[in-house]
């Protein structure tokens, strides 16, 4: 029991010190590479340590995840198919998702806009059998198309649920201002919603199936694909790998930006409400039946104008950010960290003002965080250099690390995968007394 109590004390002390010492800076993660309107960075589930960047005009770029990387390759080029307006536009190549079994089947999915008619296209491609850095351009299979009445609010985010392997896709309300067609509250359209489909078991003449526990299968007036609705234009969603919560950042109309935890079957209020407030501003509404956001911020205060959703940080380089939802604003480049609380007393802190038009966040295969804008990919400077044996991430190898490994070996604590890696000094994939002896030897020598 003494070891267990001491371990908890060490963790509390570590978090406290990390908060005191936190001083955030950002750097160009790949200074030798530039990108054309990057709007997403992704890691494939194949342990290749590559990154894939989607460029809005219609290309996917791939390169090795190394700061010194000199070259990148074009993984897929569909610029001749992607349609987008001139100047600033919300159209283009907007989303990428790798099949959970990508390493075996080579499937990945893209979400882009095309005209005649104006629409979102979700298509599956296959990686080349000859070169893993190239996709087979001729392998396109259209999964789903959704017509768009206007040029903006296309959504475009996609991702596979970590617990169900279903494909989730977000669509905006169709665009214009104020949702003139009322799509946000209309269950007969996929616009203004987050949908969930089964791409491994197609049926009913479609190239996808409907999960049996989707929430709106029974009502005949609703689209079976819908998972949640009442969303204006959710610009990026992500799952927290530890809690399973699905986080979404919904761009507001003219008063408030909001952050939601997305649950099956819930209505997030648009266009009756904008965040916690009736829409239009000054109108009266009944908030009953709507799921409120967990956080909001007011628009056009100190220049903020459009939220960019991020991730709950679960990496190791920035321990003071661990477990916090990191997100930003497109106009100002401000980045914040939101701490979720079960009692609803969530807290938000300002991390840094980057002056970068942040278009998206992303994580690599080790859950380290990146964000992009201004033709580059950026990352936070790490608070320390990782050392084998430094399992409490304080930049030193000392008795505190020994005690923490002892606690893990005795079953009194849990380690992240990174801590297990840092503890396994003899590389036998087992954390035991032999590793403890090696850490002690490092300290003594």
- Considering the protein shown, what is the CATH homologous superfamily of the largest domain? TolB, C-terminal domain
| CATH topology (level 3) name of the largest domain | Neuraminidase
> According to CATH, what is the class of the largest domain?
Mainly Beta
Query: In whole angstroms, how far apart are the ends?
Result: 30 Å
Number of helices: 5
Instruction: Give the strand order, joined by hyphens, for the main sheet.
Output: 1-26-25-24
Tally of separate domains? 2
- Radius of gyration, CA atoms, in whole angstroms: 23 Å
**Mean pLDDT over the full residue set:** 92
Helix content: 10-25%
What is the architecture of the largest domain at the second tier of CATH? 6 Propeller
Strand % is 25-35%
């Amino acid at each position: 029991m003494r070891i267990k109590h001491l371990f908890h004390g060490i963790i509390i002390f570590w978090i406290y010190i990390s908060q005191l010492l936190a001083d955030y800076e950002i750097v160009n993660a790949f200074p030798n590479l530039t990108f054309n309107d990057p709007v997403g960075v992704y890691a494939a589930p194949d342990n290749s340590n590559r990154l894939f960047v989607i460029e809005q005009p219609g290309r996917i770029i791939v390169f090795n995840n190394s700061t010194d990387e000199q070259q990148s390759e074009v993984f897929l080029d569909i610029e001749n198919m992607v349609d987008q307006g001139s100047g600033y536009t919300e159209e283009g190549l907007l989303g990428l998702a790798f099949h959970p079994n990508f390493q075996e089947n080579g499937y990945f999915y893209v979400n882009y806009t095309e005209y005649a008619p104006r629409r979102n296209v979700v298509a599956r491609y296959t990686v080349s059998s000859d070169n893993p850095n190239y996709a087979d351009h001729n392998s396109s299979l259209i999964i789903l198309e959704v017509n768009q009445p206007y040029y903006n609010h296309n959504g475009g985010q996609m991702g596979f649920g970590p617990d169900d392997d279903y494909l989730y896709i977000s669509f905006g309300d169709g665009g214009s201002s104020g949702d003139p067609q009322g799509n946000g509250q209309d269950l007969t359209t996929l616009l203004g919603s987050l949908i969930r489909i089964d791409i491994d078991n197609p049926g009913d003449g479609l190239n996808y199936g409907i999960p049996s526990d989707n929430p709106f299968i029974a009502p005949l007036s609703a689209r079976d694909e819908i998972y949640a609705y009442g969303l204006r234009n959710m610009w990026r969603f992500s799952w927290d790998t530890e809690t399973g919560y699905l986080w979404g950042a919904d761009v507001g109309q003219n008063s408030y930006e909001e952050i939601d935890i997305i649950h099956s079957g819930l209505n997030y209020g648009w266009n009756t409400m904008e965040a916690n407030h009736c829409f239009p501003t000054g109108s009266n509404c009944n908030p009953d039946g709507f799921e409120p956001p967990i956080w909001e911020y007011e628009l056009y205060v100190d220049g903020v104008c459009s939220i960019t959703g991020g991730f709950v940080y679960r990496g190791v380089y920035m321990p003071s950010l661990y477990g916090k939802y990191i997100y930003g604003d497109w106009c100002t480049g401000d980045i914040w960290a939101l701490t979720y609380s079960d009692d609803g007393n969530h807290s938000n802190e300002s991390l840094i003002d980057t002056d970068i038009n942040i278009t998206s966040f992303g994580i690599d295969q080790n859950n380290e965080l990146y964000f992009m804008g201004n033709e580059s990919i950026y990352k936070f400077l790490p608070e320390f250099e990782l050392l084998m044996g430094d399992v409490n991430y304080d930049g030193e190898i000392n008795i505190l690390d020994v005690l923490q490994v002892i606690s893990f070996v005795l079953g009194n604590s849990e380690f992240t995968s990174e801590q297990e890696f840092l503890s396994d000094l003899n590389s036998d994939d087992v954390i035991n007394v032999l590793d403890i002896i090696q850490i002690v030897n490092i300290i003594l020598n």
